[in-house]
Amino acid sequence: MPVLFLLMVTSLCAQLIQSQLPAVSWASDPAFVSVQPSSSAADLKMEPSSLMDCAALCSTKTWCSSFFYNRLQNRCLVFKGVYFDKRGLPSTAGAEYYLIASDRCPCQDGFYLGRPDNLCFFYLRENKTYNGSKELCQANRGRLAILDTLSKNELVVLNMQLNNADVGAIVFLGARRHGEDFKWDNDNMVAAHNGSIQSFWAGNEPNTESCLVLKYSTQNLRINWHDIGCGRQGSGVLCEYQHATN
């Protein structure tokens, strides 16, 4: 079963549309009505376009997680990541935002699904310690995020870029120190600082602290892993949600 991530938003999805591919449905997010990023920010664009053509285009791209469609401009903007914060997006008449509607990551409950790895994020800008972050995730039927693959880290980086994350933001991850090493909460070992593509340790990390955090860096706009004291406060909470198997 693939692991899913959740992302909390403050609004509910609205209008549902079915693309030409039955496997993918899309729902509009009313929080993003009449706002739109610039065309240069899109991973792919198409104009002129209809709404159904835009949905079909995004459906056929296995990396596509969301799209903006402007009814007045007949413009389609396709994105690998998802927007959950409209601050900084310019007002644009006719613009609507669409994301994947999935029973495994229901947009009506504020979840966003990222393709192709079926990652669904829950992110909340709250200052919490490790225990506080863990409790918040558990209260939402989840756990602290386990970023144990390259694709998961890349998706987090992408979404932090799209949503103008605070530089230096610190978020606890689902891992703790075990002796000289760190172990994820799924019992997999955290990759050592040895050049592995699955290791995002910052230079001279880890040190001797017990908890693992990600820190959003200005250097190449990427994530770096650091170890810090578990009693320190982070500046955001990132949770992972696993649906029960039948």
Automatic annotation (TrEMBL):
Keyword Disulfide bond: yes
Stretch forming the signal peptide: 1-19
Domain Apple: 13-102
Pfam families to which the protein is assigned, alphabetical: Lectin_C, PAN_1
Keywords of the record: Disulfide bond, Signal
Domain C-type lectin: 116-233
InterPro entries: C-type_lectin-like, C-type_lectin-like/link_sf, C-type_lectin_CS, CTDL_fold, Pan_app
Name this protein carries in UniProt: C-type lectin
Lineage of producing organism: Eukaryota, Metazoa, Spiralia, Lophotrochozoa, Mollusca
